[in-house]
Batch of 3 targets.
Target 1
Amino acid sequence: MTEPNKPLGMSDFFALEAGEYLERLDGLLAQGDAPSADEFVRLARALRGSALMANQHAIARAAGGLEALARAVREARRAWDPATAQLAVRGVDDLKTFVRRASSWTDADTAKAEAMAQELEQLAGRPSAQVRAAEALGLDAGARAFVAREGAAIASALDRAAQALRANPLAHDPLQHVLRALQPLRGLAAVNDLPPLPDLLEGIERAIAELSRSGIEPPANVADLFQAGATAIARGARDVAERGRPDPEGAEFRRFAELIVKFMESEPDVVSVGSLYYNDSGPHIVSRGVPVARPSTLGRLELVSHGEHLRQAADSLERAPSATQRDLRAHTLGTTFRALANAGGGILTDSVAQFALAAREAVASGVAVNNAAGFAAELRRVGDLLARSSTGDEEVLGTELDARTAAIRALPSAAPVVPIEALAPAAPRSSAPPAPPPRPAGDDSVPESPDLVGSWAAYQRLAQAGIGRASLEELIAPAPAVAAAFAASAAPAALAVDVRTLLYRGERALNRAQELRAAARQASGDSLRALVEEVCDLVALALEPSPNA
């Protein structure tokens, strides 16, 4: 018993919470029929989590054994029979005893809890391969359900944002809802072990930041980008719930990666002021201005930080197991390159800006993905240079950085160059004409070769055999059987039908109007206008008598 005015401690709170879970388990198991397997797993998992939060690891171990038994029942690895029901009831009773003894726990109690956990886990059997793969990542059923639920919420927010952007490309309010929906899943540490979900979430955040930063009209495919993101997130969440991990090479992820690279490429370049004049004799630019010296926007400590980030990005790009993840990870470097491209005001910072522009071009052109090893190696070298910027000489570092910039611009794409000859269609196997029959001895006639001369020789041979002279009339004349069939089909005279008899008139027009009235209830837009026009025509026809009247 606790004193009335004494606040509850951690152990008291655990006793209350665990006691509530155990009472609910008691009520669930007391049902005559088989209990709800999902509820059984949920309560056992909640009891284990409560014990872990209270630092009662032995009790959490025993609750984990009960949870293993509940999962075996849910996955149909163990039938719910009287023996299983007895095991579950006995396990709940033992856990009640453990909770009551939590304040005076002994080593003997730890041994009993461990023995109970091992017995229940042994009776539960081995889980399925998909469950083992998910649990190896630290994802139990609760974590997978959390990823599925939050992923569905993100997909719904992205779908609404895509619809809003199609109606109004400048509508940014739905994007803030997407950012709020991303927060729960971004805060889950286990999501980093579920590629490409972390790269996908990072790409969505960067795309939203780009749209919020630029004051220009977004590109035309921005709605398609968020729609593809919704489809990819929904696919990933479904895979995690069903198989424990998403497929990094899924078509949905590839589609999103392609669109986000195009989105980055769509940013407008700097336009020369000279291109804005009319194409005439001028005068246009009278004298070129001198750029105003601007202060350096990045200090040496910031350059060191960017250098560390570039080295980590190089490692991440090299470790990407698929082209989809390389696309997504290369795109996430866009913000870093943009921040570096705005640097200036010094020898080193100007060189850094030139490097950032070259790196962005490499990402946009696909070199960073197609030649990931070379691009990552150059990023790592630049990161090492920037890490030395706090103590190194600016001129020396700037010269070395210019060399690295030139190396990035000279990076070849790893995609193989296909010779144009290889694109020609293959010659058919039966293209060679059959060899002409051998001529008898003493025959001086022209051989029937596959060229024009041989064709003429073959024609002469056939003409001598009695096929007659060549005639254009014979070529275009129909065969006798075809001519006879045509004459037979044309023999009966076709009856002429007045087209006005095919119109709706009188009562038939009224019946047709009733049909259109029913169809108009479900129509809208152009189809509704077409129905209204047809009804107006039918009103005039309904006033005329039917031709059969």
Target 2
Amino acid sequence: MHLVPPRREALVCLLVCLTASPLLVGRDTSAAGAAPPEPGGCGMWLPPVDGPVVRAFQAPAFAYGPGHRGVDFATAPGTPVRTSGDGVVVFAGSVAGSLHVVVAHDGNLRTTYAFLAGIGVRAGDRVARGQVVGTAGSTGPEHDIGGLHFGVRLGDRYVDPQRLFSACDLTQLVRLIPADEPPAEPWDARRVASGSLTSGGSGVASVAGDLAGALGDAAGVAVDAGRSGWDAMGGAAGSAAGGAGAVARVGARAGRGLVGVASTAVGHTPAGIVASVAADIAAGTADWLRHRRECSDGVAAANGTGGSGHLLMAVGGIDTAGAPEEPTFGLDTRALGYRDDEVRYFSYAPDGGAYRAPQTHGDLQRAGLGLAEQLKQAQREHPGREVDLIAHSQGGVVVDVFLQDYYDAADPAYPPIGTIVTLSSPHEGAPLATAAADWRASPVGRALVEAAEERLPVAPSSATSVRQLDEHSRFLRDLWDDRLPEHVDFTTIGASDDVIVPATQVDVPDATKVVVDVGGGPLDDHTNIPRDPGALRVVRAALEGHAPPCVGVAEGLRGIVVPTLITRVEHGLGELPVVSR
């Protein structure tokens, strides 16, 4: 699809959003390059190595937002890495080709030693303060060779590891955590069911108003403090920021005025809708900004070269059919560098054999268990061989269930899990499934839905898997009660025009998210994304451990606004007067 250059107004809007990015993605309050503090206070905790900190802790603006949940030490390859305190090793092994050790300590505290060159302990080992757990010298995403990434979690909250070294006890560490630092809360708690046309009440309106005011204030501050040039944008953008700042100051006053209207708005009032949509677009802009900082312009196309060298378990979605040895959906595995004998397709059949489309309509919890059993079979057939997981549509939720409820990296029955990529998967539920559930809640709506299903080749809305993909389902709430396993290398890809699973719904905690323009019609994007060259380019980058390809301004804006509007329209279908929840 041809994209026209963005209008000047869109660029000004983007510039204002970029100016406010420190508010959206959090601030780095510690100076990189500073030497780690000496073991202070009671000397209870030790730095894992003696090198300087070259990348400081950066608290995310929200629980699963961008940030740096630890510190990076510069140290020579082969340097012994020591545990900071007494504890028990709860994980020691390889994930996606990188070695990690996690130690649990008293007081519900865990320390992580990541991207190691070697490991000297095993899960279950008791370790003493200062004991060597491995050696530094490996690399990983955003981490150069020769360094060490060190992270600290206190309960469900990431904390600045450098605070640990000056704390005499954990109660002191708790006092050192800023009150506004976001916890690592369950995914379902990250936001209120966003996207509802009737969600423009005081909560969403307050957030939208704060964002509007913050955008204007931040733009003004950036202009006042940085007229000589803004490092992130360059001199030309710095001069343009002056005009944007003036516009944004006016916009801030208007935005705060909107709060007064939106905070009292109910139902389908325009102010409530605008405020809620603005909040979602602002959140999408923050994701796009993060992607711009972590992308690469040199990503190779998926042309049959390269790849991970692993086995592949490909997981199809609803209404697929086939057998483990034959393609069940249109993923171009050869373009990704896999040989035919390295690919196996997940089966929804209880015995793991050939399956029919109606079997994809069953319980997704049971499907996750089936994936666990089929991966164990792969481990028996190819002991120790890493397995990548690439899933499409509903198949991505099957992968979620496997990771959340069945996978244990320390269980030798499972193969090492390499890279995980999902394509247009409704990790946050499908708005059309939500709308169908709303319609079925009334007699008139149910009759209309059933009449439509008799004439259309779609999965019935009464199917178990469709009901589980309702955004309000207990299944999804329970699924995201906990975070994904640590150190999982996860990339989630959405299509900007997908109406089956809008790109607003493909988010996964701590995963890399990319939205691509598949280029077909809205009804084709969902089906075509597994073989789309742009999407496959992102998949290849993930498999090879590279940053995803950069997304241009026009495509980035389109990937934010269009999916948000699609989601709003689909939620509106469930709020028509003919239906009621």
Target 3
Amino acid sequence: MCSQTGVAPVDSEREAVPRHVAIIMDGNGRWAAERHLPRAVGHRAGTENVRSIIEACIECGVKVLTLYAFSTENWRRPYDEIEALFTILGDVIDREAEELHREGIRLRHLGTLEQIPAELAHRIGEAVKRTRCNDRLIVNVAFNYGAQAEIVRAVRRIVAQGIPPEAIDEDRISANLDTAGLPDPDLIVRTAGEMRLSNFLLWQAAYAEYWCTDVYWPDFDGERLKQALCEYSRRQRRFGRLAAQIRAAGA
């Protein structure tokens, strides 16, 4: 039987390295526009740095990486761009899934496969199944994902289980989210200068630290991620307490 997470519980405020890093990968289109290239070229360029990000996570001791690849709001984009994104994801799975498996990396999908082309949905499912027992690094791919819809799905699961209202608490809701069994993100990174969550991990990000950069996603690599991790290590996570209380607890 495979472990659900492979992530040991730790006291996050005492950790210099976040257990879970989540990235809003933004700026592919602007990267392409500045080079007078089609947007699809920017999206494809945005897959070339993922290997560098994964390697940096492993090197630094990050245990969970979540990548925001396609939101439920992205369905509002032109169909040819959506189709290109589907093609690119399929190509990445074909190119990388087996190698990631050999390196002990587990792939998980966050979101729903509804509306996704059947062949692509099958390839996603097979990659998830193939790597399910790996525990060197968990990589969540949030594809056709929206946090509000995720919370709705969690509530519906709880109702379907017949759980009485008085038994519903934060832990119950967390256990029915797409990220069930995983630690909440400690650090959320957003590229391309935007300062919003864009319907990403709204429940799980309640106590996350944020780090934003003007760098477009295709130019964001492992070294830049290490800059974010370095900044994170300087912050003190208080979780509602006073700094003096945390110092006293660590004495």
